[in-house]
Design brief:
This protein has 270 residues and is an alpha/beta fold. The protein has one domain (4-269): Alpha-Beta Barrel (TIM Barrel). Helices cover 35% and strands 19% of the residues. The protein is built from eight helices and eleven strands. It has a seven-stranded parallel β-sheet with strand order 1-2-3-4-7-8-9. A two-stranded antiparallel ribbon has the order 5-6. Strand 10 and strand 11 (264-269) form a beta hairpin. Helix 5 packs parallel to helix 6 (184-196). The longest helix has 18 residues, at 61-78. The model has no long low-confidence stretch (mean pLDDT 97). The structure holds zinc ion (2 copies). Residues 7, 9, 89, 232 line the site of one zinc ion.
Length: 270
């Protein structure tokens, strides 16, 4: 089995802990073929109108890049087998000024892989309970899916559509799960949109599986074949649930993961 992980946080994320050398050592111990570090870049919070109840620390992209490059140089010296790539997780906002900031940065800094993520709904971080105050399940989940759909047209280069279903993670509703039958039209638009744009749908194993197996099956049925595997590790959990996730994906019919170097796709057998 070939192990790849395209969504990993380091100490350069507000909620990450590990120095990059520790993550690389862990990847080598586990025999990974491909590893991309993808720290949080929250321009949606920094330059937009999104609000969070706690002050997330913003990344210093140049410091992150320097530490990544040091580790990449060390791996090159060792002639290590690991394909080690430089990525970022960009928090989507529909606000134009935020999107322009991303476009500016991506023109300056050559990321190998950009993950496009929706973390805020109606201006609030859905990690925290206050985002859900006075909002019905239908309203929150519907608004979330509308944003995911909008995020597909982000006017900057991205490769991966992250963790669809993330809004449910800390949702307070009695029926927490988000099913295809809740919003078939919205899901269809998103899944077809990903396929038409040639992007990769992320399979995220950080907590529960995002998206759910039901949505992955729909994606396959519609002709979607590009998948990106992400443990979304914040602390030494590379390739979490990799084996069992691969078994499920193969059973659906998927044969490959997509990994990216300078936004160029390489296919890795599942
Ligand atoms: Zn995320
Ligand atoms: Zn993440």
């Amino acid at each position: 089995m070939i192990y790849v992980d395209s969504h990993v946080h380091t100490r350069h994320s507000s909620d990450g802990k590990d120095p990059i050398c520790d993550i690389v050592a862990e990847a080598q111990r586990k025999g990974l073929h491909y590893l991309a570090t993808t720290d949080h870049l929250d321009y949606d919070l920094k330059f937009g109108h999104n609000r969070s109840p706690i002050p997330w620390k913003h990344i210093d992209v140049d410091a992150y890049r320097a530490e990544w490059a040091q580790n990449a140089a060390k791996l090159a010296e060792q002639r290590a087998d690991l394909e080690f790539r430089f990525g970022i997780e960009a928090g989507f906002s529909p606000e134009k000024q935020v999107q322009e900031k991303y476009a500016e940065l991506f023109a300056r800094v050559p990321f190998d892989v950009v993950i496009n993520s929706v973390h805020f709904v109606n201006g609030w971080d859905v990690y925290f309970p206050n985002a859900f105050f006075f909002k019905t399940r239908r309203r929150m989940y519907g608004d979330y899916l509308d944003l995911v759909l909008q995020s597909l047209d982000a006017p900057y280069e991205y490769d991966v559509v992250a963790h669809i279903g993330y809004v449910t993670r800390n949702a307070p509703y009695k029926k927490k799960t988000l099913e295809y039958s809740d919003f078939p039209d919205k899901f269809d638009a998103i899944l077809h949109g990903i396929i038409e744009r040639g992007k990769a749908l992320e399979v995220n194993t950080h907590t529960t599986l995002f998206p759910t197996e039901e949505i992955l099956r729909k994606y396959y049925e519609y002709g979607g074949r590009k998948l990106s595997f992400g443990s979304d590790s914040h602390h030494a959990e590379l390739c979490k649930d990799y084996e069992k996730t691969c078994v499920m994906l193969k059973e659906i019919g998927f044969t490959h993961f997509s990994v990216f170097s300078a936004h160029k796709e390489e296919l890795i057998e599942i």
